[in-house]
Amino acid sequence: MALFLRLLIVALALTTLARAAEANDLLQEYDSKIKQKSSELDSIKLELERGKQTLKMLEEKEGTQLARLNRLQSTIQTTETYLSGLSTQIDSVSVLISFLGDSLADADRELEQRRTVMEKRLRHMYMTGPVNVPSPLRIMEILFSSRNMDEILYRVRFFQDLNRYDRALLRRIDSARVEVETHKSAVEQRFAELTGLRTEKETETKNLVSQQRKQRNLVEEIREEKEAYLAMVQELEASQKQLAKIIETLSNQRREAKTEMERKQRIAFEQRKGKLAWPVQGEVIQEFGKIVHPVYKTVTMSNGIDIIATPGGMVRSVAPGQVVYVGSMRGLGNFLMIDHAGGYLTIYANLAKVQVPKGKEVEYGSAVGTLGKSGKFHFEVRKVTDALNPREWLE
Question: Which of 146, 164, 209, 227 lies at a CB distance of 3.0 to 4.6 Å from 152, suitable for a disulfide?
Fold first, then answer.
């Protein structure tokens, strides 16, 4: 029993300062402030975490949109390069069309000129008859205008060759003209295709530029939102540091106040040594200290005093403190402990009934329990684990 009680007192003594602090208004005020600031800090931490997550999401979103913007820019550059090539081709085809048009016009003029010459010759031949079928008039003309037979034969062959040459030349000119016209038509068709393709690509480029503009606006909006969240995160981090400093300051002040309060409570309790009111009015039947058995002469130690008082009488606290333990134990019966700070404890045992719960704050003379039918009461004063003589503390 003595070992258990000693261990119990040690455990309670180790928590004396914290329990004394909770009972004090000043410490409770510090606790309230620390709790409030800690709650604010937790709220800021939560908001900060959300802000960081949102910021990370915006950074990822910005990266995605920037990549898309870069792809659009690359596509626009490729399309513009393609358009530039198309324009070069169109310019070349346009020059070729112009050249072919000039060639076709030249062919038409040459063909017209040859036709005019042939028409004149044909009119003359119509009037005089064809060379390969000589008329009497043509024969007379050739005979009278020629000096000999060889010249007559030469002139006949000349007119025949000239006729064949004119016809062959007309066919070549007409064939070349048809070829040029066919080539020109093909080139014009290619020109139309290139022009249509350029129009299509120009429209596509306009759409891409429009998408690029929208994409840039989107990236700008994301950046503005990101900057806003970054500013918010920085502000929350600054608030977090400020609150942490406030909590640290309050904790230090509370610790100092608790130390000072314990010192004052200890001094107050120690200053009342020899002046504490008795827990009950009665006769001391067992003193503090060594007890020698009258028969067996064995020596035991009494850690307190035993008092005989009125059965069913009220037991009162000898000083302010906090009830730190309520229970029962063999040899002590129902008992309670009151912590008076500074390591000082008082024990009230052999009670019929304990009237205060654990954690209760008591003052001078507060009722804490009642005596049983025997009226026997046990009282102890301790400092941490050391038992003190109650006679030295009571009036």
Answer: 146
Q: Beta partners for 321?
A: 362
Report pLDDT digits (tens) over 38-60: 888 888 888 888 888 888 888 88
pLDDT tens digits for 68-115?
A: 888 888 888 888 888 888 888 888 888 877 887 787 787 778 777 777
Is the pLDDT at 247 greater than 70, yes or no?
yes
Question: Which residue's entry shows tokens 């014009």?
Answer: 188
pLDDT higher than threshold 70 for residue 9: no
Higher pLDDT, 337 or 246: 337
Return the bridge partners of 377, or none.
Answer: 307
Q: 344-354 and 376-383: which strand pairing? A: antiparallel
Of the pLDDT bands very low, low, confident and very high (cuts 50, 70, 90), residue 123 is low
For CA atoms 275, 279, 284, 285, give the dihedral sign: negative
Sequence-separated (6 or more) residues with CB below 8 Å from residue 169: 114
* CA gap 31, 20 in Å, rounded: 13
Residue among 118, 109, 112 nearest 167 (CA): 118
Burial 251-273 (b: 16+ CB within 10 A, else e): eeebeebbeebbeebbeebeebe
Q: How far is CA 9 from CA 12, 48, 97, 217, 390, in A?
A: 5, 45, 115, 73, 17
Q: Most confidently modeled of 32-41, 70-79, 301-310?
A: 301-310
